[in-house]
């Protein structure tokens, strides 16, 4: 709340006391008795509660001349953590006006304090995002603006750490900024905007605000990243409203829908939002439901710049649907293929139409097509959408045939899933992140979905399951966060699928052009391929190039974004008897614009794009963006595995922006240097090097390959706390580690871990892993605090499920 002295500027109570905000208000002052219009009172929607601060703080003051640009950071040049600046503005006359053409700071963390005159001991404070331009008109001719950022970047903040830019001018004559852009009337330095411009007196009436009418679609074209488009509606208190946004952009846009009362919404200041649809990028449809009210309701659409997903312009449409007498309207009006239940706002779709959206009502927008057997059925699916097929199994076909579905994606940056379901269409359960278990289905190829991101999937419905009646195939293009390894669908899916009935034998997985086993031998008794040693996976479709371990360097073709390659190295009895170590080294060539990963596995495929499928890895080199990546399989590891083929994968992840150019070398060696810590000390000076294995023998209390971490400190039932006073929670340096362990018994049902630090400038990460030391890289830990990572307080709760107690292993 603002102090009452600001009332004379239209920001306060005006009757000698402050009133309480309404329920759910965000930093809003209820205006009563102030001389200015309520529009100016609504400015307080953007202003934060005051912090105790003496008049004109001690800071390096910069005198700014009128009509001179000033600020800190900006749209393309963010300010630093802990940044501070002070500007003194002085009008030649007796009043001035400040106009911000850009303002976005970390909401509720970084503040601009406005001191109206040298005696101002209750200044105004602003944080977050403001509509641009944003106008302030203080009472005094001399004003101090003090900007102060805290020392920490907050990854969970509503707004970005960008900055502000502004000018001021002498407004002693009562003139308005930009002359109200010829879209309003100037009154004592503040604008009253004409219809269609706005929205309030703190603007220059240069922001278009369109009126939405019930049932009339408004098209939005070409919203750049970070830009806004605004609308307004007026809905009676007895009615309801549904605002729906339909995204028609390619996958490079990131729309967000916001609603505010009586003023324009921003990322930091709003009343209602489509948070779930935006955060998980669920589908093309974003929507907000609400109740009518007295006054104007403003709608904002932005191509969100906050999380960095948007790189292209936004094309969309917005539609208002009003429900009279508290009735609820339906999304898309059921697309003309269903009946709207005005009590729930949900559609009952006509036969042959589906529309299940995550955490949303049905839309009846997806037509179910008839499936033709033994024919390539092709389609295109936008992110978050479905394609559906139906095949009716006859009594003669039921329980006598197998139904095989082969699915192929031709878009490597899409992540599809194909599912088969009996009697109803496959669906994604409401509100769930789309892992395999989040879908409703009868049969699915979980390996194809998780291990190769759905690029090829083979589904078999066996004779005992294939009953008479309707069978549906659903193809879904995954949205957003999937919970598997953080990857997302990045483009519209193009695919083909073929369904075939077999009345004998079990078909092997097939490739699109090579047939069963990509032309290799298929065992129709088991449905398994017999792949040669240079061909990998169940359909023999991945080729592994041979490395001889002779120190020779190869320069393979460059890997595109999301690309991968595989290599095979044979370990013989002679290598094992000679106690050889195998070293595989990758060197990134040219300008370092890609960060690869390498993984190794014995006699099986080390999945390039699945961080959990490997025996050894170079994930730390990827994390640190090193130019050299290396995997060491020491003599003891090779002896334990025995003679056979080790496979190595190289992956240029989708998080990279350029193709990967690299060389790869393999060598068998009997003597090796040991790992260097990040300060280039071998074994961090905390252990001795066993050169016959290239392994550090760390001193007591030191762990990690390079002996650089403290631990492992044991926590026991009698001592479950780690703290500096107990000597088992030492200071962790930047990029350093500490580890603890706890034994969990078969009767234990919940393990709770809570972490706290008082160092505001630190960025800690708490991770938990079973049986092995966890690391910071995806695939090297089992649990972390997703929503509070890098914050001073983090917590993890691990529970037992059903008959699988969390602490019990196969060995008991």
What does this structure look like?
The chain is 4% helix and 37% strand. The relative contact order is 0.06. The radius of gyration is 32 Å and the shape is globular. With 812 residues, the chain is mainly beta.
What is the mean pLDDT? Answer: 86
Radius of gyration: 32 Å
Number of helices: 6
Tally of extended strands?
58
SS class: mainly beta
Assign an overall shape. globular
> What share of the residues lie within helices?
under 10%
Residue share in β-strands: 35-45%
What does the secondary structure layout of this molecule look like, with pairings?
Blueprint lengths: L37 H4 L19 E4 L5 E4 L10 E7 L5 E9 L6 E6 L7 E3 L7 E3 L5 E7 L14 E8 L13 E4 L2 E4 L3 E2 L8 E5 L5 E7 L4 E6 L6 E8 L7 E7 L10 E2 L1 H5 L5 E7 L5 E7 L10 E10 L14 E4 L4 E4 L3 E2 L11 E5 L6 E5 L4 E8 L8 E8 L6 E7 L4 E2 L10 E2 L2 E2 L1 H6 L4 E6 L7 E9 L15 E10 L7 E2 L3 E2 L4 E3 L4 E3 L4 E2 L5 E5 L3 E5 L9 E8 L1 H5 L3 E8 L8 E6 L13 E2 L1 H5 L4 E6 L1 H7 L2 E8 L10 E8 L17 E4 L4 E4 L3 E2 L5 E7 L22 E5 L7 E7 L10 E2 L14 E2 L8 E7 L13
Parallel strand pairs: 1-3, 13-15, 25-27, 41-43, 53-54
Antiparallel strand pairs: 2-9, 3-8, 4-7, 4-9, 5-6, 5-8, 10-11, 12-13, 14-21, 15-20, 16-19, 16-21, 17-18, 17-20, 22-23, 24-25, 26-35, 27-34, 28-33, 28-35, 29-32, 29-34, 30-31, 36-37, 38-39, 40-41, 42-49, 43-48, 44-47, 44-49, 45-46, 45-48, 50-51, 52-53, 55-58, 56-57
